[in-house]
Specification:
The complex is a heterodimer of chains A (318) and B (247).
Chain A lengths: L4 E10 L2 E11 L4 E5 L6 H8 L7 E6 L2 E2 L4 H7 E4 L11 H11 L4 H14 L15 H13 L5 E5 L7 H14 L4 E6 L2 H7 L2 E6 L2 E6 L1 H7 L5 E7 L2 H9 L4 E10 L2 E8 L6 H11 L3 E6 L4 H10 L7
Chain B lengths: L1 H16 L1 H25 L10 H5 L3 H15 L1 H9 L1 H6 L5 H22 L1 H8 L6 H27 L4 H18 L9 H10 L1 H9 L5 H23 L6
Classes of the chains: A alpha/beta (318), B mainly alpha (247).
């Protein structure tokens, strides 16, 4: 099966700055792929190359089997792109704007009205159809731009930070919409917000400083961190009393205080790679006659995977 | 083709939806009104040189050039600069339209707006016609000249706009470039060599428009204008498209 998006050793240099260093990954048809990285990691640069806005310094991108550099127009017909900074024409009404965009995207005149109505319906902007775009809130503008993406019924959606600047309610709606769209469309979703990926994506590509450092399912990425165990401990007393004895235990890498609830100190103990610290903690508690209420492993969240992967230098250079 | 008309329609709409259109249009018509008033005064002077025709006066006066040089940068400054500043250019350039279509649509949109504003001044001739007889042909060729000249200057302005995200800078650059083009004809006085004078006359916008206003439709300035327009639009296309090319 032809991958929906195939990125092959893509690089981009600006004078002395390397924005992308030979990144490669693929998105299969029907997948929702999260493209995750801290700000400035190269996400937007990658998406701009994908949509044909800028040329790479090296490597190639194929969308639906077509080379982006050689067959830009055909590629653009197949994608819907939501840029990071949504800029629409403020003097147009929502309906007018979408009709204009439908014309640009080659939607036949006869079917334009119904197509615009359908896109507005799906993105919940029908109620502002006759309002000037310049008067809309950020959330509505974002959704109008998303409706624009859907007009030509593209096979592939490329969304750059689709929930940035939205309120929590709108974020949830947008995520639901993305999940729903993902049933029929391939989606590449760039974000620096982790829950977004955990909520919607089948796979995740993590980028940092212009390099892809992991491509996997969210579940397997989480398992990658199993090597370092984190244990939550609750002991009766002030947290300060427990911190240094716990830190002194063999195999403990870090101790963090989480809080103090109804007389119990809550602490998180991170083990050094490969070590199991649960038994030493138990023994210490017995020896010092601490009242131990909880001793449980904390499952690594994707956030930890992300922080872990993006703050440690990759040893193998990849 | 549908895509191209969608783009052009949007350009025209953007112009007429902005207050700039009405401020610029009002100023333009004010200057043209002044020009017309001067013209009428001139025509009523008894010692007027009979070899000078009425359209020559209308399409050649100081206020005529002032309004052309003022109008064009204001029409073209927003074409690309505005989209670059707001970022809407990203959505434009990721739509399935060619760079050539985008550039031509922006050019045509501004050119049509220019033509519409000029067509308002036809009223002066209709008014004049009610009081005196004159030949329509030189008036119409005069308008043809104004329209073709507008094409060149608008292409220059669109090119300037593609180079910056700041509309003021775009307008100033366009004005500067147009002033240079306009001034070439003025150099005539400094040149002795008859061949040199010929070349300068060929390049002189003043000279051309005088011809059109006399009712002469010469293909040479038309070719010159078309070439210059095409060259500027080609360059604009290169400027707009260059980030897409591989270094």
């Amino acid at each position: 099966m032809t991958p929906a998006i195939a990125i092959d050793r893509l690089s981009k240099r600006y004078d002395t700055v390397t924005a992308l260093a030979e990144i490669s990954f693929e998105v299969q048809p029907g997948e929702i792929m999260g493209f995750l990285g801290p700000n400035g990691a190269g996400k937007t640069t990658t998406l701009r190359i994908l949509t044909g806005l800028i040329a790479p310094t090296g490597g190639r991108v194929r969308i639906d089997g077509l080379d982006v550099a050689e067959r830009s127009l055909e590629v653009r017909r197949r994608i819907g792109y939501l840029p990071e900074h949504v800029a629409l024409y403020p003097e147009l009404r929502v309906q007018e704007y979408l009709a204009y965009r439908a014309g640009l995207k080659g939607v036949e005149r006869g079917g334009r009205r119904s197509r615009v109505a359908e896109a507005m319906e799906r993105c919940r902007v029908a109620e502002v159809a006759r309002q000037l775009i310049g008067r809309l809130s950020k959330g509505y503008r974002q959704r109008v731009a998303l409706a624009d993406c859907l007009l030509a019924r593209p096979k592939i959606l490329i969304l750059d930070e689709p929930t940035i600047g939205l309120d929590p309610h709108q974020i949830r709606q947008t995520r639901e919409l993305i999940t729903e769209l993902g049933r029929t469309t391939t989606i590449l979703l760039s974000t620096h917000i982790l829950p977004e990926v955990e909520a919607a994506c089948h796979k995740v590509a993590i980028i940092n400083k212009g390099r892809i450092i992991a491509v996997d399912t969210p579940q397997r990425l989480r398992m990658r961190l199993q090597g370092t165990q984190v244990v939550r401990v609750q002991l009766r007393g002030e947290p300060a009393a427990f911190e240094s004895p716990l830190r002194a235990l063999p195999g403990v890498a870090r101790v963090g205080v989480c809080g103090h609830v109804d007389g119990f100190a809550s602490l998180e103990v991170e083990a050094a790679s490969g070590a199991d610290v649960r038994e030493p903690i138990y023994r210490l508690a017995v020896e010092r006659r601490w009242a131990l209420r909880e001793l449980a492993p904390v499952q690594a969240s994707l956030e930890e995977v992300f922080i872990h992967l993006t703050t440690t230098e990759p040893q193998d250079g990849g | 083709m549908n895509r191209f008309w969608a783009l052009t329609g949007r350009e025209l709409k953007a112009f007429w939806c902005s207050p700039i259109a009405y401020v610029v249009g009002a100023l333009f018509l004010l200057i043209q009104g002044l020009e017309f008033w001067l013209l009428v005064n001139f025509l009523s002077m008894p010692r007027l040189d009979p070899s000078i025709t009425m359209p020559q006066l209308f399409f050649g006066g100081f206020y005529f050039w002032l309004s052309v040089l003022m109008l064009v940068p204001l029409l073209t400054m927003r074409t690309f600069s505005e989209e670059k500043r707001t970022g809407s250019i990203e959505l434009l350039l990721t739509a399935p339209v060619t760079d050539a279509q985008v550039v031509l649509a922006k050019f045509l949109g501004a050119w049509l707006a220019y033509a519409i504003l000029w067509s308002c001044t036809l009223a002066y001739f209709l008014l004049l016609r009610a009081f005196t007889a004159f030949a329509w042909a030189p008036v119409l060729t005069g308008y043809l000249g104004v329209w073709l000249l507008g094409g060149v200057l608008i292409a220059v302005g669109v090119l300037a706009s593609s180079l910056t995200r700041n509309q003021i800078i775009a307008a100033v650059m366009a004005f500067g470039a147009m002033l240079v083009l306009f001034s070439v004809g003025v150099l005539e006085v400094f040149v002795r060599d008859p061949e040199g004078v010929k070349i300068i006359r060929y390049l002189s916008l003043l000279e051309h428009l005088g011809g059109f206003a006399k009712g002469i439709v010469d293909t040479r300035p038309i070719v010159f204008y078309a070439t210059l327009t095409a060259a500027c639009l080609f360059l604009t296309g290169r400027v707009v498209g260059h980030p897409r090319w591989r270094a």
